[in-house]
Backbone:
């Protein structure tokens, strides 16, 4: 019963979203792991939302994705809370990604400016998990 309840909680806190990277991915090394962070611009009904996303140990994404790349993200919504230096309550809402699917890769002109490595203009559904 406990296993079923755990899986149900995972399904209930599940997010799938498609959007464009607002900037290149930032990679921070923390101990022996790599935390990738980026912001996803998602437009719906003439309104744009900017959603922070984090994914761990997927450094190769920085080779294929950059500002403007279109991706599909699967993950969970996470809210962190803490007390700021001024004593005020702070919070952060973001997506902790389990997978990033390539919808569009870096534009060919961006690839050419990065050492001439050849890249394709569409990802064909590559999954980074």
Residues:
């Amino acid at each position: 019963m406990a296993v079923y309840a755990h899986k149900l909680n995972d399904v209930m806190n599940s997010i799938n979203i498609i959007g464009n990277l607002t900037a290149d991915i930032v990679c921070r090394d923390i101990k022996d792991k790599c935390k990738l962070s980026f912001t996803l611009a998602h437009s719906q009904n003439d309104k744009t939302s900017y959603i922070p996303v984090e994914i761990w140990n997927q450094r190769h994404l920085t080779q294929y994705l950059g500002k403007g790349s279109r991706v599909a993200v699967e993950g969970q919504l996470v809210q962190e809370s803490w007390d700021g230096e001024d004593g005020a309550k702070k919070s952060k809402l973001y997506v902790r990604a389990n997978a990033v699917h390539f919808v569009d890769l870096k534009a060919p002109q961006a690839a050419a400016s990065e050492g001439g490595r050849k890249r394709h203009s569409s990802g064909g559904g590559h999954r980074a998990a």
Remarks:
- DSSP finds three helices and seven strands in the chain.
- The helical segments are 2-12, 61-64, 108-112.
